Amino acid sequence: MKPNSAAARDIAYHLHPATNARRHEQIGPMVIERGHGIYVVDDQGQEYIEGLAGLWSVAVGFGEERLARVADAQLRKLPYYHSFAHKSHPAVIDLSERLVGISPERLTKVFFTNSGSEANDTAIKLIWYANNARGRPEKKKIISRHRAYHGITIAAASLTGLPPNHRLFDLPLPGFLHVSCPHHYRGAEPGESQEDFATRLAEELDETIVREGPDTVAAFIGEPLMGAGGVIVPPRTYWEKIQAVLRKHDVWLIADEVINGFGRTGRMFACETYGIDPDVMVLSKQITSSYAPLAAVLISDEIYEAVADGSAEVGTFGHGFTGSGHPVATAVGLENLNIIEERDLVGHAAAMSAPFLDALHGFADRPLVGETRGAGLIGAVELVADKATKAAFAQPGATGQAVAEACHREGLIIRAIGDVIAFCPPLIIEAGEIADMFARFDRALSQVEATQA
Ligand code: PLP
């Protein structure tokens, strides 16, 4: 590595998110300089298929001129304005109306943040505030799930159910509980059907709420289909059974659609895919195709009315970010939605799902593969040491890492979540590109299989 190279300066000055800092000092960064369509190019000129759409997010692909033009125009016209103290601007109004128009019926108001984590923190604060305003100050606990990923700010990290997001951080905070992950392959008893597994998880939730006291439990949060926890497709009937328990105990449901939203599962929202009727919905990532940081929290009228009453009592709603509803981010979000609708990228994702899932499931027979799973244009291959017993590797994550590195050599970026290899390509991907992506993965997997044989 040359001194003063981008890589050397990255090691010298940059603390990376979600990275082993000591390992980074040794191996340095992959420096990505540009992108087009489903591809990105590094500073050595090597081109890769971006099999995870960045961080599950670049729906319209890289290098979309329309988004660049809109951002440029907004920067020239009104680069910044805020929404505090009754101020507003056209882009935030238009996007609010648009999101309420396309989201599930009961959601009527939008609050904007810069990130999904802030949006989940905001969802929790709205719920606490509303329950105080409604005279239910005890109803505050939030139930999430093991292996959930909901972000990394203090409340969002408490919702997250992954050890690296808790260890050494003194998290989760008290009042945040976790129930079982709905992963049939890992969680079901031998011979237990998907439906029976779902029933058992709903019973666990019911027992948890009863044990804690229904008057103390405010909300349950879940991604309709879990992404960063390892692409966990819910077992059949899971969401209808979970929602029945929540309704019984008057517990609100937060649907975290940060990865799922805007077409990922083949419908505009995964709430439609899985028949979910949320009280709160959290959106980010594909809302702007991540061309600008933006997230949104949509709430029901019931929650809005309580929050509005509370703000009148206090004198203001004491919550908001300098960047809430940023003009450039909301303008980019609107144009991104225009592109998604004009090109019918939701329909496209649904149409591409068959070639995507067929190719993915084609790896099920490989010696290192325990399970293949997915929906729409998101999927995963879970690597195991022993197919028959489902035993994990003695050194967890090492095989996943080896596959990720072999993928890089083949010109493919995917995400290794431990020993789970996740695929989540841009929604614009075409059938030929899907075939190319999995051909590259096939070669990478074969290389690792050869070393283990
Ligand atoms: N919720 C889900 C489901 C996510 O996948 C993520 C990020 O990956 C977040 C929340 C947090 O979003 P951000 O990284 O923008 O804070």
Automatic annotation (TrEMBL):
Which PROSITE patterns has this protein been placed in? AA_TRANSFER_CLASS_3 (PS00600)
Q: Which GO terms describe its biological process?
A: biotin biosynthetic process; gamma-aminobutyric acid metabolic process
Q: Which parts pass through the membrane?
A: none
The answer on whether this UniProt entry bears the keyword Transmembrane helix reads no
Per UniProt, what is one GO molecular function of this protein?
A: pyridoxal phosphate binding
- The yes or no answer to whether the keyword Transferase is present is yes
Record keywords, A-Z: Aminotransferase, Pyridoxal phosphate, Transferase
Q: Which cofactor does it need?
A: pyridoxal 5'-phosphate
Q: Name one Pfam family in it.
A: Aminotran_3
Report the sequence similarity comment from the record. Answer: Belongs to the class-III pyridoxal-phosphate-dependent aminotransferase family.
Protein name stated in the entry:
Aspartate aminotransferase family protein
Provide the species name.
Answer: Microbaculum marinisediminis
Source taxonomy: Bacteria, Pseudomonadati, Pseudomonadota, Alphaproteobacteria, Hyphomicrobiales
